[in-house]
């Protein structure tokens, strides 16, 4: 019976969590909100799951290790180049804003939440953190400008372990009893040195583990099959070791380890990036469901008017005021300060720390200690819902987002790809023409087409593309092998159904003898449309053309062109770009208002060498 219950629990947590992630992706909803609601349904709602009671004393240590993996994943995204670009703002949000928010939140907890000063200081220490478990998924679903995204990412990841250590120190101080001489006990005096020692140990362990991985990799002493398992084991291991020194220090060690790996240029990190993102989705999904399901109905009954007033005060007064005060004189625009001052969702670290320290303080007999956990979870739920649903609209209103139009990147600047980029650009769709040879981009630049001189297989190229992110990619160079390399590199980021390359030839499309599907993109058009065919037709006068499907088009006939016209793509403004491929599973069904991009022979092409003017797009 117990095994059956365990199997049902795993199915509910893992299956339900991934299902919630898919629904969030499909309908553009904040995944964290769905996971939180799912946990409430499983736990306090129907009483199906009681993780702490089922797992027992191992529940919180397992949660701690899972959170260490999450902050390690976040540390891998902390590139020092971003620090140089937005370093002052990041420094203000981590070094200045944290103590200011702590003081303001503690004052609010005492005067608004009616908590005594000791409990109020502990509450303030817990809620200064903005969780990477919430911030990072929100950033994946919103095209924020790189500078603003860096603010939120660095603040969440760096402040996470600091806030956990701060809460631990406050708890230790509150649990200290006065000495028999009537003064402060020796333990209170040792808190400062203990914090310094724990910080040094955490940084040392994280950096040493990263240097060891680099040493083994550079000397071929780390087999590929063990590279990723060893890195993941080190991430959890350094966290466990440092937690023995001080609770919370493990999160700092895992963050430092990830950050060091990201900046030491360790080989093989691209594979780790793909695996850790997939594992991160699973870990975050399971953790949020488990922690929320572990809430008791009695805890929810403790939500009172003072707690709700405290929640609103922290969200609408404490956080904005703290950011305003700590960023005075910083090189941040008022839009950035307003946005960062509002967006501060709390996540798993705050929930886990509240559950542990609140219980310890309650067992010590502190009055009001039983209110810490409901107060923190009320703030977590409110920030996840309000900030999750308001992040994208607020960013758009403040003009801190990149274009929401589906964007196309074309790798390889030649005569026909330049013509394609120009036509797509003229119909109002974001397009970026990329090449490693600057003169090849000059013609497109003269027509106003955005261009990028970079190697997409390089770190610089990847970082440059992040500033103007693409949703679809067409590799259009004469080298089929290079096209395949670019598509294989970009597929994990864009999706394998969104990277295309000029056909490498009929023989190479054979799934057994030809190029592996994992080593190339989807074929652009028909298998016979190789680079030579498209290029030779351009030399004969073929040109790309755009056509808008009108409501008045004959419904009895297909709006798609027939031979000899070559259909390249269908664009639905604000929704998607469908690049035609013989490997499509389902045929494309265009609708009124869609834009068709075709490759037409000379007799149908208008003014081949003159700039094309797109037809007006109906509202």
Automatic annotation (TrEMBL):
> What parts of the sequence cross the membrane?
6-25, 32-52, 58-78, 90-112, 118-139, 151-175, 195-213, 225-242, 248-266, 278-295, 307-326, 338-359, 371-389
Gene Ontology molecular function terms on file: antiporter activity
What processes does the entry annotate via GO biological process terms?
A: proton transmembrane transport
SUPFAM superfamilies documented for this protein = NAD(P)-binding Rossmann-fold domains (SSF51735)
Q: What is its main location?
A: membrane
**Per UniProt, what is one Pfam family of this protein?**
Na_H_Exchanger
* Bilayer topology: Multi-pass membrane protein
The name this protein goes by in its record = K(+)/H(+) antiporter NhaP
Lineage runs: Bacteria, Pseudomonadati, Pseudomonadota, Alphaproteobacteria, Acetobacterales
The coding gene here is nhaP
């Amino acid at each position: 019976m117990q095994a059956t219950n365990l199997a049902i629990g795993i199915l509910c947590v893992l299956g339900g969590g991934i299902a919630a992630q898919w629904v969030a992706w499909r309908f553009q909803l904040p995944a964290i909100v769905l996971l939180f609601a799912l946990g409430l349904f499983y736990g306090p709602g129907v009483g199906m799951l009681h993780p702490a009671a089922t797992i027992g004393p191992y529940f919180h240590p397992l949660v701690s290790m899972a959170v260490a993996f999450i902050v390690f994943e976040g540390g891998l995204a902390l590139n020092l180049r971003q620090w140089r670009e937005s370093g002052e703002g990041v420094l203000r949000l981590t070094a200045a804003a944290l103590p200011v928010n702590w003081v303001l939140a503690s004052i609010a907890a005492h005067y608004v939440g009616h908590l005594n000063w000791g409990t109020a200081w502990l509450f303030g220490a817990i809620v200064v953190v903005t969780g990477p478990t919430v911030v990072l998924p929100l950033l994946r679903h919103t095209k924020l400008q790189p500078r603003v995204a860096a603010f939120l990412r660095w603040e969440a990841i760096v402040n996470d372990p600091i806030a956990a250590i701060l809460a631990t120190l406050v708890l230790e101080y509150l649990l200290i009893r006065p000495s028999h001489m009537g003064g402060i006990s020796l333990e209170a005096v040792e808190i400062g040195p203990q914090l310094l020692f724990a910080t040094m140990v955490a940084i040392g362990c994280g950096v040493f583990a990263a240097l060891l991985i680099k040493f083994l990799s550079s000397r071929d002493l780390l087999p590929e099959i063990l590279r990723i398992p060893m890195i993941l084991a080190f991430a959890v291991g350094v966290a466990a070791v440092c937690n023995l020194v001080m609770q919370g220090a493990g999160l700092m060690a895992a963050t430092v380890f990830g950050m060091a790996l990201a900046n030491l240029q360790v080989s093989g990190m691209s594979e780790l990036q793909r695996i850790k993102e997939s594992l991160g989705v699973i870990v975050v999904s399971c953790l949020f469901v488990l922690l929320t399901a572990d809430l008791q109905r009695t805890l929810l009954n403790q939500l009172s008017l003072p707690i709700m007033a405290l929640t609103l005060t922290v969200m609408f007064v404490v956080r904005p005021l703290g950011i305003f005060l700590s960023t005075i004189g910083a090189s941040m625009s008022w839009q950035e300060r307003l946005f960062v001052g509002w967006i501060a969702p709390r996540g798993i670290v705050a929930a886990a720390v509240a559950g542990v320290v609140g219980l310890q303080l309650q067992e010590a007999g502190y009055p009001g200690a039983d209110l810490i956990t409901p107060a923190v979870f009320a703030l977590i739920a409110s920030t996840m819902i309000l900030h999750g649903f308001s992040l994208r609209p607020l960013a758009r209103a403040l003009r801190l987002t990149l274009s929401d139009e589906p964007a196309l990147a074309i790798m390889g600047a030649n005569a026909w790809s330049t013509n394609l980029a120009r036509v797509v650009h003229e119909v109002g769709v974001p397009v970026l023409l990329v090449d490693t040879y600057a003169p090849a981009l000059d013609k497109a630049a003269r027509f106003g087409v955005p261009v990028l001189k970079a190697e997409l297989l390089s770190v610089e190229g990847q970082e440059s593309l992040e500033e103007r992110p693409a949703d679809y990619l067409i590799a259009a160079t004469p080298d089929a092998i290079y096209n395949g390399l670019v598509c294989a590199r970009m597929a994990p980021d864009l999706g394998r159904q969104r990277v295309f390359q000029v056909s490498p030839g009929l023989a190479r499309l054979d799934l057994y003898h030809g190029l592996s599907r994992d080593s190339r993109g989807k074929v652009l058009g028909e298998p016979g449309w190789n680079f030579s065919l498209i290029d030779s037709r351009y030399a004969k006068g073929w040109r790309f053309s755009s056509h808008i499907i009108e409501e008045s088009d004959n419904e009895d006939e297909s709006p798609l062109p027939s031979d000899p016209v070559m259909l390249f793509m269908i664009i639905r403004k604000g929704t998607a770009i469908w690049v035609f491929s013989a490997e499509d599973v389902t045929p494309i069904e265009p609708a009124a208002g869609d834009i068709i991009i075709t490759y037409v022979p000379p007799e149908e092409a208008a003014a081949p060498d003159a700039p094309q003017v797109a037809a007006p797009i109906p509202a």
